[in-house]
Amino acid sequence: MNFTLDDSTAMMPERKLSTAGEVLVKVRVSKSGNAIPQPGDLTGSVGPVKVGSKGLKLEIKDQIP
Questions:
Q1: C-beta neighbour count of 8 within 10 angstroms
Q2: Residue 8: pLDDT band by 50, 70, 90 thresholds?
Q3: 33/37 Cα distance (integer angstroms)
């Protein structure tokens, strides 16, 4: 799946990604549809990576116990 992380996708407008040198990219797929992490959710992460990196491979391979 293609995705873009830039200042337009920041959760808080005053905390821009462009000001960070490196970031940790995480993904969580919720089984319940809840925003709060819960047991059984699937997760994965990659990083730290430089802001602006391309072609990252983020594997969802872990499960919250």
A1: 9
A2: confident
A3: 10
Report how far residue 15's alpha carbon sits from residue 1's, in angstroms, rounded to the nearest whole number.
Answer: 25
Q: Per-residue pLDDT tens for 18-58?
A: 888 899 999 999 989 999 999 999 999 999 998 888 888 99
Residue with tokens 């959760």: 11
Residue 14 φ/ψ, nearest 5 degrees: -80, -10
What's the pTM value of the predicted model, to 2 decimals?
0.75
55: left (phi over 0), alpha (psi -120 to 50) or beta: left
pLDDT at residue 41, as a whole number = 96
C-alpha–C-alpha distance, residues 24 and 50, integer Å: 9
Tokens of residue 33, six digits: 């549809």
